Amino acid sequence: MITLHHLNVLRSTRVIWLLEELGLGYELKTYQRDQNFRAPPELASVHPLGKAPILVDDGLVLAESATILRYLEQKYGDGRLVPAPGTPDRAIHDEWLDYVESSAALPVMFTLLGAKTGGLPTGLAGFTGPELAKALAYIADRVRDREYLMGDRLTLADIQMSYLLTALRNAGQLGTYPAVVAYLDRLEASPGLKKAIEVGGPMSLPART
């Protein structure tokens, strides 16, 4: 039995989305954030990192979203959500999958942190703004003439990308990137993501005004 340890308002909704896309049975254990919006200490008893998502399957305990997505697809997906191994498309797909939580995540997280703390220091803001613009332009160029990152087929990379774009939209950062907004709209129209949000809640909350 697959068990997913899930934190409310978090990127682990992406793992629920994949589980729904694959039609897998799973047990969802949901934890609530504390008053400082941090994970509760109980998660550390499941995995030393003490954060979600954490997947448990046949005694295997995994953290990190990309690792979990790859594992589930390789074990249960039969290639439905990735290009064929050994092809150029697979290499490009994996580049996008890794890009989300590596190069793209840094300026995104700084931007979101600044929005929550009254703004970034001048030096950090001077770095973050151009890096975020570069990331969003890169994504926009990719999806302007494609339904998804790899064409007309939903892949793991799209599922992984959904959290960052949702968080940026809710922080008011996508207004000048209509191609990215349209792409996110297409992701949110997916029955799998709709079900994941119904089961696990949203990945990000709109900014308070």
TrEMBL record:
InterPro entries: Glutathione-S-Trfase_C-like, Glutathione-S-Trfase_C_sf, Glutathione_S-Trfase, Glutathione_S-Trfase_N, GST_C, Thioredoxin-like_sf
Boundaries of every GST C-terminal domain copy: 86-209
Keywords for this protein: Transferase
Broad enzyme group: transferase
CDD domains (UniProt xref): GST_N_GTT1_like (cd03046)
Molecular function GO terms recorded: glutathione transferase activity
Domain GST N-terminal: 1-80
Coiled coil, from the record: none
Assigned EC number: 2.5.1.18
Keyword Transferase among UniProt keywords: yes
Pfam family, one: GST_N
Signal peptide start and end residues: none
Protein name per Swiss-Prot or TrEMBL: Glutathione S-transferase
